[in-house]
């Protein structure tokens, strides 16, 4: 943007605060005049900011004269504990904000979690959030309100956090001459918020949190600069001219036509930032530090903008005025708009979105062109990038976000269809030719920072640029006063106007310095005198009186006849022309003067010498008047160079000459000749006047055509610049494609390595594997599979049913179909046809990375050794069982739970038990509980728990069925492998009484 834009947030009609007072002076404030002398510090933070708040208040002295407002990101559904936490680290009063609470110095205020907080005349105002949780920007909301209401007494601090909340608010604070600090990202637990704030370039200090209180106190205790040094500098423009020269030499831009008050306020803010008191000292600082010149230039170009800024104004434009403009178009027509001072492009894309939506509602197919210009090249580059932080969700509706933006990570990128409607270009309103044939021209909150003289030059240019009935959209603080004939006001609040059907005088357009040079020196305009000095020179008074009484009536004009100054009474020679009022002497000259006046002015302008004509007959209200007309070119003083002075002097009627008496015939012939000559002269005058008017008209048309060609050339330059930008974007895209190609190459190498690794892995496992598709066709197989199936590489793609195998099992295809139908794995043990090998065949579904079934995997694991071992174990078990049966003494094999695994026939016969029912029974349940003997329990507990083996243990027992028995018992604990528990052998000798 070309100069700062003020964003009215919270309280749009808040009055500007008074100048700061000295620290030592105190003023008793009335209820209607709140104390605005102390600074208010807004502390914003999100994730990880609690630690920053603690450190800040630990290092903060108890009495600073400032108020502190903590704005955290909290869950609105939970009760916040921030107030209690901060009280632990400061002796200042800590309060949670209530609606209507007054702000007082040396207090800490905490924003509640479920409300948005604003300032209204030194009182807090709580409002319900409009955005849902997750899209709220409470820091931006408070910072913007703080900036508007406290201006230079506002201080914004951004601490650790995720996202971009606070960035827009910092812009507002700096734009209103406040001070901004950001936590050093290297010290923040989450650095997204600090880095986004730093990227915006609206930051005075980047510090660790523990150093912030010291910097705050130094800033607050700095004496006011608005003293004699700044006043002296304001009276004399010498120092300011040096600054203008430094900026012009550094950037090529001239700020001499910007409002002095704004320039001084910006310089004052930079001096406060560097703690410089003398204006001349700051000029020397600029001369020694070119980076500070660049920083001051950026300060003068602060562009606080956002999407749909002043939503009510854009809503009015969308619903009422843009549809009227669109309805005047036909399919295929151009719909053109110019956004002057577009800053980083938000407003340009806003206008493009509204135009697209208006076209869609009207059902038309128009060619939309939005020209977006700004004086700042860096802002234009950011606008062309069309990439914005996710905090735009607070201003752009979800529907527009979905239609016009693509979200990538934490940024929103403008879609190509909208991006191609907007042409961005670096453009200086004070110097470059305007765009023409516009349907909408927006120039919001820019003109208020330009001098009145420059504004008077711009409004005719705006009128010239717009189509008939085109719309002019200004900022809420700007006005069209002085140009009621050019624009018709449609909305006074939001400054929306329509181009009026009138002709702008060429003299107004001619004053505007359209040029294609890179820079044109604009002489600074001297300050108006503060007082009118009384004239004490008698000679000056006498000269004035003599001019009034004896000097003839005169005009100061330019060669085109435009009047700049009138002396004396000229009503006898001039009269207002019909139609639109103007001050052109050729249009106002009375009958009899027009021809000679035009002739004399043209001769004097070309010959550069005085010319005159006598005895001109002028038709006045009281008859004919003879006049002497003289035109004198002026070369000095310098202010009047190239102008002309036109003087009118009355003359007496010429006396008739005394000649001899003429005959009637001679008199008649003479009268006829005179009448003929007068008629011819009148005809010649009329033809000459017509020729002169046609020439002037041609000159005007030529000038208009030239200006249109200049505008078209400027548009072509902008389009060429946009094409160069597209070329750069294509080159950048090509570089990205090359990068992606390299990444693909790297991925291909990684894939090759992975395939090699997988091949070696499958080969090392020695597991035969066959990969099948859903039609049972072979996709791949490992070399080990050739030992089972008669496979060669040429069999890839053939059905598995066509391949002969070395197995006795022929139902493999049915098993695969069953697995594909049920999506459950299946395992079968198979033997080769020669009976020498055994394989465990396992069939599993083949799942892709997207969990899509794309066939089956059949694996064959050689289990020949396992089968041989199994047969060996079975034979061994049979052998052991036969040995036990041969033994004539009672013998029982128990597991670790004292359950019977096997028993000899002698044991079953001795105790009259059924052999088939013994296995698995608990020792104490044998014979319907006959073996539940206390002595036996005690003995077996020692065997189990203590690991003691019984040798020749003698015990006696009366069995209910068998009667008395005397038993000699021996035990042996048999340890097995780790996966199987131990076993206990019970061998006994049984004696009857």
Automatic annotation (TrEMBL):
Keywords: Chemotaxis, Hydrolase, Methyltransferase, S-adenosyl-L-methionine, Transferase. The keyword Acetylation does not apply. Residues 707-723 have a biased composition (Polar residues). Residues 8-35, 650-672, 700-724 are annotated as: Disordered. Residues 240-491 form the CheR-type methyltransferase domain. It is an enzyme of class 2 (transferase). It catalyses: L-glutamyl-[protein] + S-adenosyl-L-methionine = [protein]-L-glutamate 5-O-methyl ester + S-adenosyl-L-homocysteine. The active site is at residues 46, 73, 165. GO terms for biological process: methylation. The keyword Methyltransferase applies. This is protein-glutamate O-methyltransferase. It comes from Rufibacter glacialis. The lineage of its organism: Bacteria, Pseudomonadati, Bacteroidota, Cytophagia, Cytophagales.
